[in-house]
Fold each of these.
Amino acid sequence: MRGWVRALQEWAKWLVGESPLPGQRARLVLAGTVLVVAVAVAAAVEVGTQGSTGSPAAVPTTEVPHTVAPTTAPPAGATTTTTTTRPVASSTTTTTVPQSTTTLPRRTRRTGSGKAGGTRTTSTTTATTPTTTTTTTTTTNTAPDASTGSSVPPAPTALTVVSGTGWSQISWRPPASSTPVTGYDVFVGTHPGAEGTTPANGAAPIVVTDYNVLHLDPGQTYYFTVRALSARGASAPSTEVSNAPGYRGIGSLAIPVVSLAPTPDGLGYWLVNSAGQVSTHGDAVDHGSVSELRLAAPIVQIVASRHGGGYWLVGTDGGVFAFGDARFFGSRAGHPNNAPIVGLVPTVDGAGYWLVGSDGGVFAFGDARFLGSTGSIAVQAPVVGMAVDPATGGYWLVTNDGQVFGFDTPVYGSPPVLDAPVIGIEATADGGGYWEVATDGGVFAYGDARFRGSPAGAVLNAPIAGLSPGLMIGGYWLVAGDGGVFTYGTPFFGAG
């Protein structure tokens, strides 16, 4: 150290002119000193450059670990980004470092994704030193997403049709398909294989597996098909079904048999078919029929007079035919009706009656009072029956989904779940309850109405057409479209 100081002193005296040029030893010391200072200055400049970008002033000496994105396989059609951070490697290559930025991890989805070809991107932090490199690998799976399927669904299966006055309810099973079904369309025609191209349900797809086709002409044969809908398009049409009776009659009446009316003492009954032909059983007396007439519309019901000395027949056009001591008070025949007439209900004293349409319209004749209708109510199903409350003089209307509407009379209940459409309603003798009956024979009793049994669950040759209570003896009869009669607490007098 003293030699180095002495050499520097010699150079200082030379610089001010007090001594000659120093010797060889002093020259070597000066050269070494300059070299050391230059190295120190260069190191200081490198450190200063790294600190000037906004990063921490001191570079950590701990080696940065090697990190890799998760190895969970991305979903089909996704794009993955893998970011790899490597340890600092020494290099003499000059690197331009970007400004410091921090981006929190996030997920973004391309508009319209969710099907094959959708994109999912994972972003990571961009480092501020030249020690980080980013490699992006994109994999696009163009195979169809299993959640949507690659083709339209198959056609619906197991179609069935149950028909009432002016309506048919079509039911089906969903197709077995990996392609999600978004709805269904029902198509209707009057000839086999000639269904229309416009769905009966309009522009709104059906989201359940049954549908009521309304505004059908009573007595007309219709044909139906169903298509399943999906994002990929519509299925082929289902197997065609028809509302034409697929059964044979079991008595003297041609099919379909549409109604049974008991005599007041419960010791007999009348049956009628859609052509207006009447058959008598037990103590029921034949008072005439319209089977020889050319009817403008099918007959839908027979109703006994108060004392049993006659009956009314009513047609779907509102025509009323009175026989025996049943009095004629008027009809809707020849008048434009918004919907087919589905029934006639006499007043308690028999001096009047109401007619009811499948749209819920009510028409009063004789001493019958108009108390209201469902014409202004947005009901979801056609009205199929009406019953009078003897206690209040009011009446109930029932739709084929079992919903009951009371007018000047209390409502006692309705079935929460149905296996088949409701086809009618009948009141008890005192008006303290009523029965509803479905086409599969299901009977639902409310208020003081007693459940006596039903054929529900049994295999029927034909759908049930109605229920008639034996008010003097208790119990009730059910009649089927083939003329079959089922008795529950009532006597059997014959079929058809």
Amino acid sequence: MNVMPETAAGKYDYKGKTYYFCNPRCLERFRANPEQFLNPGGSSRQPAAPSPAAATVPYTCPMHPEVRQMGPGTCPKCGMALEPEVVSLEEEENPELVDMTRRFWTASALTVPIVVLGMIELNPLAQAILATPVVIWAGWPILERGWASVLNRSLNMFTLISIGTITAYVYSCVAVLEGLPVYFETAAVITALVLLGQVLELRARSRTGAAIKALLGLVPKTARRIESDGSERDVPLEQIQVGDKLRVRPGEKIPVDGIVLEGYSSVDESMISGEPIPVEKTEGMKVIGGTINGTGGLVIRAERVGHDMLLSQIVAMVAQAQRSRAPIQRLADVVSSYFVPAVLIIAIATFIIWFVFSGAENRLSIAILNTVAVLIIACPCALGLATPMSIMVGIGRGATAGVLIRNAEALEIMERVDTLVVDKTGTLTEGKPVVATIVGTSGMSEDEVLRLAASLEQASEHPLAGGIVRSAAARRLQLSSASNVRAIAGKGVEGGVEGRSIAVGNRLLLEAKGIDAGPFDKQAEALRNDGQTVMFVVIDGTIAGLIGVTDPIKESTPETIRKLHEARIRIVMLTGDNRTTAAAVAKKLGIDEVQAEVLPDTKVEVVKRLQHEGHVVAMAGDGINDAPALAQADVGIAMGTGTDVAMKTAEITLIKGDLRGILRARTLSRATMKNIRQNLFLAFVYNVLGIPIAAGVLYPFIGLLLSPMIASAAMTFSSVSVITNALRLRRTKMGS
């Protein structure tokens, strides 16, 4: 359709070309996704996780994540259909599901008349004709995987099913010629039910990626960019670059990570952090792409775009973690390695016992049916899926609640943690210290003490330094440049300001320089008892004053520590603060043990000591100096408000950055491990009970023999039940 510019209802510029529209609704649809209309044969790009053609996407096995290939296929170890390594937001057609569904319905249509003919024992030749396409064509993927398992020397579920199905089919073909009873309905029903199981399993497995799809769906496709001339236009998200100014209108999703330049609003970050209360945003504050703006308008500067966005990093981390293996999986791996050979031995023994010792006239038929039942009912697949399905769903659930888990091992260990080591600043406290007290000598005013200290500290990244600099800015003090600035780990900082030697630090700094605190000592101790961190200001080797800084305790900290104690977790606080200050904070919060005046390199030693005492230790921190201790701990927990180094070192990251996330992580760990144990119990009990019953152990007592068709139905639903149970984790209540 051609639209004349002079009669157009609207226009839109895209990639240097102007498009005209006859209807405003058409304009809005085009603006939302131009590529959908300009390139209808292609697929629109998703900024966080593009979805290329299936042949170029890496696929992996949910049971054996080490198996990887480009494009769809089957696992050479277990025979399961591979799935995309990274979930895409686009609803792509699963070729495996389509094929299995077509084969199932074809097999079902042919199996019904076979069963009817078998029940009335009529026309064995017609049964053979109908059963052949069911077993050979519809069941071909099953037979193919069974043969591949033999070639790869990795016997699995499809080995057993193939042997059982072919045994029943070949015997029946021979029986037609010999005039013996046939069991084509057994072979056909087994094939149809196995195909049904594959269809149900594939559908259930597709829902395990729902958490990642939900995260991907948070990002809008377009952003409203403010051009250099002040004009505004909507552009596709992939065109946004770092530094672009963007307008976010009320109710819209924030397109990228950025900094607020103008405006005031409340932003709903619950989909990222798990916190239901909107967060107020004003000039200078950070915003996260994918969160929802409230009633106010914002102008932001793009800071992170595309794969650098927090949301994209979350998706990548979750996808990788879902493929990791928990230590509990080793038990299932050991059992599975012996499982199929053991079932084959039991099947052979079943045939020999029934054929040799039964004494019945139709003992060959009974021996074959019981052997087939043993082969079909055994389900190593349920055993193999028990752990990875729960891990996949559990880690995805954590991501939607602001708990990012880097690997399955951390998720397993978290439920056994009995000691939590926390860094005070930024973990228990806000991490934004404020100056509460300034004391100067008779010849030095409070403002001058603060100005000189802030001039030196403005080059430091320490939170306490930030508090001093902010206080000086609030008083509108004119700062000077500092020279030869040198940080002294765990003690303070020194350098030159206006030609004078300045040092700002704690008592350890005074001791290192051989300076006596004198009359300032009592004042400093009084401030410490009040919970303030005291820093001495030394000018040319003499104390010129002191500054008392307080770091407000996070509102959520006291309640969280109480709940952690209820969970029988011991809290150990590490801090570089003076012992008096640390004791005051610990007393207020009810912390069990305090390690004060701890230097960065000794935090690791504290964690090692606790581990040596037999404790399972989790370490929560947010700074670069916490990274070694986070790595040493059994579970390292990084606050999302902290440094990138801490988050890369830790096994768990709490996006919101407060201790409530630790409670969520523990709740999730306990729920996931409980779910895994349920799955393993179901799989073990099913096989332990099912195989002997199929072999006929109950026949001497109650005359029960298990039909291979019933065995096939039981096997089919055993795998589906494990996946369905794992999916219940999506409804886990994480608490507040």
Amino acid sequence: MSKENIRNIAIIAHVDHGKTTLVDGLLQQSGTFSDHQVLEDRVMDSGDLEKERGITITSKNTAINYEEIKINIVDTPGHADFGGEVERSLNLVDGVLLLVDSSEGPLPQTRFVLKKALEKRLPVVLVINKIDKPDARIDEVVQETYDLFIDLDANDEQIEFPIIYTNAKDGIAMHNIGDDSLNLDPLFKLIVEYFEGPDTSDNGTTQFLITNLAYDPYVGQIAIGRLDSGVLDISKQYSLCTEDEIVNNLKFSALYTFKGLEKNKVDTLESGDIIAVAGIENINIGDTISDNENPEPLNRISIDQPTVSMFFNVNNSPFAGREGKFVTSRNLIERLEKEVLSNVSLHVSKTDKTDVFEVKGRGELQMAVLIETMRREGYEFMASRPEVITKEIDGSIHEPVENVYIDIPEEFVGTVTKNLSIRKGKMTSLVNNGFGRATLEFEIPSRGLIGFRNQFLTETRGSGIMNTLFDSYKEWFGDIPQRTSGVLVADRDGKVTTYASLAMVDRGVLFVTPGTMVYKGMIVGERNNEGDLVVNITKEKKLTNHRASGSDDTVPLRPAQLMSLDQCLEFISDDEYVEVTPESIRLRKSNLDVKT
């Protein structure tokens, strides 16, 4: 039986197509916030990293009311590295809004999330956003979206999707370009009329699948998901169906329903709604809460397996413990195990060394976000170079292969094609749209992309756009050349001097500025030749009582290249680490005992 008082929808889109801005407008115009409340921009991107990077990293949900109908809205990440969040989000909803930029059209991450939605046979509404852009090409974008649906094997019902046009920044939606709409009311009505309510009943067996976890210092662990069937009552006992066993006679300490961005405490919860419960410990994503007497668990959430692994080591550098708050192996493994509880696409395992842990995930971006989050929380550790996870199929080694989508000025096509070919990339498409830019598609092993992004940005002078999407596992492609240049390595502890830095001008590019403290074995720059070079970066000028005319003239020092965490992870080789602390990011050799 369909519940007509509830709609559960997800908004899926490529990075920076206006998804979170549209949610802001829906919240504002639904009356969820009172007139005197100031609505923060991109209110659904609540994390610092999300605001800084301008992307959605974790899936979140909010709820609004429109004409007595509750609309639960799930804001999903647009990047394939956070696909675990996407897959969980789609388990909560009965339809999706596909948001597409009126100029850029459907881009790679749109393809990834849409593919997941179509596989679940979810109905789709196409939202063409940013219709006020001067370079909008609405008709072409609509046709490109139809082509994408056909390419993804959409069924006849899915491909007959309705289209609505929006300017999310101004809070306007319209069925046809040129309509005199002044608000998002056409979109609200389309959501209510096109999407059906959840097919469920309050009289059935209670089944609540856990799709997300949160923590509250007052009530402890909070489980979030959709109540697929039955009701939950604060006064009754229920069972927890885990992967290995069924635990009976459990009671809740609190039940919550969502309104806006807040959780409202209630005594009962109805089926079909997206809810949260507290009071049950040792609960995991994928578990089911069901009837106490006759429990019926739902199918556990299926998540794509990791394709990249890294090793997290306890920091053992000479500067260890100076800047971090959590520095021991116990601190490190506890934090990683806590992350796994709420991030199902991450796997953590111990190694034969007590101070080294292997972390497996979806991609370099996901790993970089985890490392940066831990760094800001006060953790200090070392991270190795990302490596791809291989599989043995029919007696031969297979490795992950990705599709790469590139948008660059046409004068860089030759250079980019050459470098991707060296990394075993195979071009599958080349389109020159006649506006001075070309769109390229490649099929390339994931190994070939590690460390390529920095080189790509340098070669295209910052004007290139590159997106990747996991394709499949294919037979091992053979050796792939990685970084060809060596590094400059400090030969002693001390402080970087301007005098020594000047001597490095013709030897490479420095990563450190004068006054920086370094230690033996720390990487201080990139050499402009093959092989590593051990240097004395702390050398001081010997002072005398004599002066020579012109010898003390000011000599300009080339600025140091200060790299971000993402750039450091891409730069290092197999025998190097990124040392991460709350205050610093350093590069070092795995063996600090370098030979001078």
